[in-house]
Amino acid sequence: MKSYAYLLAIGLLWGSQFIFMHQALEAFPPMVVAASRAFCGFITLVLVCRMLGLRSNKFNWSVYMSIALLDATLPFILVAWGQQYVDSAVAAVTMGTIPFMTLLLAPLVIKSERISLWGMISVALGFVGIVVLFAPQLANAASLLWPILAILFGAACFALGMLMIKRFADEAPLLVARNILACAAIQLTLISLVSQDFTAITPSVGPVMSLLTLGVFCTGLVYFLFMALIQLSGPTFASFSNYLVPLFGMILGALWLNEQISHTTLIALAIILGSVALNQWANQREQKRLKVLAASC
Question: pTM of the full predicted structure?
Answer without folding.
Answer: 0.79
